[in-house]
Design brief:
The structure is a single chain. This protein has a single domain (21-212), classed as Rossmann fold (3-Layer(aba) Sandwich). Helix content is 55%, strand content 13%. The protein contains 8 helices and 5 strands, in the order E-H-E-H-H-E-H-H-E-H-H-E-H. It has helices at residues 22-35, 50-61, 67-91, 102-112, 117-128, 143-150, 164-180, 194-212; strands spanning 11-16, 40-44, 95-99, 135-140, 185-189. The longest helix is centred in the middle third of the chain and has 25 residues, at 67-91. Ligand Z5A binds at residues 16, 18-24, 45-46, 74, 99-100, 104-105, 108-109, 149-150, 157, 159-160, 193-194, 197.
Amino acid sequence: MIQKHKLTPRFISLEGSEGAGKTTALKVIREILDGWNIEYICTREPGGEPTSEKIRDILLFSEKLHAKTELLLMFASRNEHLENVIKPALNAGKWVISDRFVDASYAYQGGGRELGFDRIKWLDEFIVSDTQTDFTVLLDIDPAIGLERIKVRGQSDRIEQENMEFFYRIAKAYKRKAQLDSHKYAIIDAAQTIEKVKSDIIQSFEDFKEQLM
Ligand code: Z5A
């Protein structure tokens, strides 16, 4: 049996607005880590464990939710996810890849819902504390292109039904967060062809690996 690498476990998140192509990106990331022979888990937010998945249903399919309720449910879900999945995996020496994490709260609730970065930062410090990501891949796309891509799905959830201004505020907030944490961000132009997006992700991981060695 091939021995898996014993590098310090790393926590990686994948971010982007609707239709940015996270599903494809996740597949590429898995292939990269398999190639590096690293033991990892893939998870998602909101969700990733039973209670958090129940909260996800409330978040995505309630008819109406106040912005502050949405924010607190995101962090309640995150706390269960952190305590029951993310921390145990990291402590067991595994890498964690999360399809969205706390930066989505900065973007959607801080930016989209206009609750501001300060409130999110307070909750970030309270809930996430020192379990911050080591590396974040942001799939950057004009929301109009992303929403066009997912139109074919037909059914949309509560958040996807928001207006265009909401999605432009999210894109702006993601960029702001990426600037604040530029040392651990890879911003990928997700409007490019799938092949080009893939090769940019591979390059960003090569650059990240260099920092680890
Ligand atoms: N949310 C929040 O508000 N606050 C928080 O703190 C967190 C989350 C953690 C659920 O997230 C919702 O929760 C989300 C944010 C909010 N908002 N909503 N709604 P989610 O990640 O589970 O759901 P999502 O953002 O709606 O995912 P998505 O729409 O499925 O996006 P995607 O994964 O990026 O889409 P995709 O399926 O990979 O790609 C969409 C289509 O585009 C698909 O047909 C692809 O084949 C196609 N595609 C992909 N790449 C390309 C390229 N390069 N060219 C052309 N076509 C492409």
